[in-house]
Write a structure and sequence with these properties.
Elements (H helix, E strand, L loop, with lengths): L1 E4 L2 E2 L35 H14 L4 H18 L13 H15 L5 E5 L7 H7 L7 E6 L2 H14 L3 E5 L5 H4 L6 E3 L6 H12 L4 E6 L3 H8 L3 E2 L3 E4 L6 E5 L3 E2 L2
Helix pairs in contact: 1-3, 2-4, 2-5, 3-4, 7-8
């Protein structure tokens, strides 16, 4: 398995042990609690603005894309009060935790124009990728979502950002029947364990799609489990935005 980080190939870190002489960790500051109404709290504006600056440092975009993403975030904050689109604890990090985390996928598949995002939820990474490719001829992002309220949000997000997205209200396993035409890259974020994601994506990979699946620090365990069901040759890329990894697959064959 190949593992790539910002500095090149590297091993997955399993954490550092603690022993005599190790520095004592300072207690983490208490995190503020948020409820649904907090999404539109003006007190968050300056926090989100600072987080945006950091996100765009990690994943720079054009002014046109930035403007689309601004409209997207404004809409998400408005809808968050009535539909749970993101974890409330991540509201102050909307840009780094969600926007930059999604944008980095485009750099791993720079030639991909046609994407499929399975279980799009609040639009990560699908709407973000659509915003980034809005000026690219022939670009399209299929957003598959099974919850009607979230699918309605996705349609509105595509409309207000004037981005090339197509929303499918469908069970995730039905994506092959819903998506017409070739797909260059398939992705899914915070949807299911890796071995299940491969099952959803395999019909698209069979027709030439690359798969990019963001995963957390437990990626090794997920890869071990996936190998029980699939013959795969994964390549790992360290996330720019945290301790996670992105699993890249060019194909998968079910074990007999």
């Amino acid at each position: 398995m190949k593992q790539r980080g910002p500095g090149g190939d590297r091993r997955l870190s399993r954490g550092q042990g603690t022993g005599e002489g190790a520095a004592r960790a300072e207690p983490a500051p208490a995190r503020p609690k948020f409820d649904k109404a907090s999404a539109n709290d003006p007190a968050l504006d300056s926090i989100i603005a600072a987080d945006k600056r950091e996100a765009l440092r990690l994943a720079p975009v054009s002014r046109e894309t930035e403007a689309r993403l601004d409209r997207y975030i404004a809409l998400l904050r408005e809808w968050q009060a009535k539909t749970n689109l993101v974890a409330l604890s991540t509201l102050p990090q909307l840009w780094t935790r969600h926007i930059a985390d999604s944008l980095q996928l485009a750099d791993l598949a720079p030639s991909a124009k046609r994407w499929a995002d399975l279980g799009s939820g609040g639009g990560f990474p699908g709407v973000v990728l659509a915003c980034a490719m809005a000026g690219t001829p022939g670009a399209s992002v299929h957003l598959v979502e099974r919850i009607a309220k979230k699918a309605a949000f996705l349609r509105e997000a595509i409309r207000v950002t004037t981005s090339p997205g197509i929303v499918h209200l469908a069970e995730i396993g039905d994506n092959v029947d819903r998506i017409t035409g070739p797909v260059d890259c398939v992705t899914a974020r915070a949807l299911a364990p890796l071995h299940q994601l491969i099952g959803f994506a395999e019909p698209l990979m069979r027709h030439g799609a690359k798969a990019l699946f963001p995963k957390g620090q437990d990626v090794e365990a997920e890869l071990t489990e996936a190998a029980k069901y699939w013959n795969i040759k994964p390549q790992l890329h360290q996330s720019r935005t945290g301790d996670g990894w992105i699993v890249e697959l060019d194909g998968a064959e079910r074990r007999s």
